[in-house]
Amino acid sequence: MNTTATAAMKWTYVTRTLPHGTPMAVGEWRRPPRAGDLGVGRGPEIGVHDHAENRNGRRMRLHSGDLVIGALGNRYATDFYEGYVIDSPSAHLLTAGGLIGTVVSSHDAHGEPTRLEIVGSLVGSEGQALSTEDFAMPAPATPIRRPPTVVVVGSGMNAGKTTVAAAIVRGWTRAGLRAGAGKVTGSGSGKDRWEYVDAGAASVLDFLDFGMPSTFGYPGDRLAATMFAIRDRLAVDGCEAVVLEIADGLLMPETARLLKVLRAEVDVVVLATGDALSARAGVDILNDLDLPVRCLSGLVSRSPLAAREALRATGLPVRTIAELAAGDALDLLPAADAAAR
């Protein structure tokens, strides 16, 4: 296959950091494979993922026999797939964003994964195998002033973290602040990025910008450095307030590691949760780490009764998405910053 042939292939979202116009071709598959490796897979059997996100996040239909360009990586999703980079040409599409690995367990609500046969690596002009690491942003300059930083965490998957973070961005933007949003961990997807953009974020960054197509399995020090690089880059971009979303639940290993280094780096923590019992457990974990959790939101806020239960269980206010977007997000800023508005 030649460089021209790659143009007709389906480039997934995890390839969005690759510069347009760079000469690339399909070469020999690098063995052993590593997280971040850019590979080309042929889809012999369409399963759960019958669509994938393209580089801009648009859903594109997948057909049997398509050649798909994605990135190898691991996935930790308690309500979807658990998957890993395994040294085998037979693999699966782990996410619609183009993460490729091998499913080892799945939630019983989902059927068979879409299977891919790895036919080669994406290579550069000199035949070298390419990785998302090759297109990572450089470390940002140290900002003159660290902007107020709110971190959104969740008791588990699908507790409403991204929706909460976007509502905070919306509330700040409506008040005239230049808001920045960062997705610290997870698997590369355009859905969350566009959620922040549509809420009015002046600048949006995630782990993919710093070389990782997904964060499960990376060392804790790498994840911590990336989290602070996202925040600092948003500051350099002129953001006056920053919200960082840490994916998955508090018990997820990568999340737990990051929480331990947050104490001196964050102004407020918001916990997204689905019910009062999860709220109580989550607040206890955050309090044990001496983290400044100030309110609850997410799915629990959709039910007034559940919200009252959560308030009784934790003593913390529950803010709805509409309340955060309408102005309560300003209350999350340090007093001096809020008073200045």
Structure overview:
This protein is α/β, with parallel strands linked by helices and 341 residues long. Helices cover 26% and strands 25% of the residues. The protein has two domains: 3-135, no CATH class; 149-339, P-loop containing nucleotide triphosphate hydrolases (Rossmann fold), CATH 3.40.50.300. It has helices at residues 3-6, 161-174, 190-199, 220-236, 253-259, 276-288, 304-314, 321-326, 335-339; strands at 10-11, 25-27, 38-45, 51-53, 59-61, 67-72, 75-76, 81-84, 90-93, 99-106, 115-123, 149-154, 179-183, 203-206, 241-249, 268-272, 293-297. The strands form three sheets. It has a six-stranded parallel beta sheet, sandwiched between helices. Strand 4 and strand 5 form a beta hairpin. Helix 2 (161-174) packs parallel to helix 3 (190-199) and helix 6 (276-288) packs parallel to helix 7 (304-314).
Short summary of the structure?
This protein has 341 residues and is α/β, with parallel strands linked by helices. The chain folds into two domains: 133 residues, no CATH class; 191 residues, Rossmann fold. It has nine helices and 17 strands.
- The CATH topology name of the largest domain reads Rossmann fold
The CATH first-level class of the largest domain comes to Alpha Beta
Report the radius of gyration as a whole number of Å.
Answer: 20 Å
Put simply, the count of helices is 9
Strand and helix order: HEEEEEEEEEEEEHEHEHEHEHEHHH
CATH superfamily membership of the largest domain, which one?
A: P-loop containing nucleotide triphosphate hydrolases
Which blocks of ≥5 consecutive residues have pLDDT under 50? none
Please provide the count of β strands: 17
Describe the strand arrangement of the main beta sheet, using strand numbers: 14-13-15-12-16-17
Structural class per helix/strand content? alpha/beta
Mean pLDDT: 93
> Which geometry do the CA atoms define?
globular
Provide the CATH architecture of the largest domain. Answer: 3-Layer(aba) Sandwich
Distance between the termini: 58 Å
Count of discrete structural domains: 2
* Helix fraction by DSSP (H/I, runs of at least 4): 25-40%
Largest sheet: 6 strands, parallel
> Hey, roughly how much beta strand do the residues contain?
25-35%
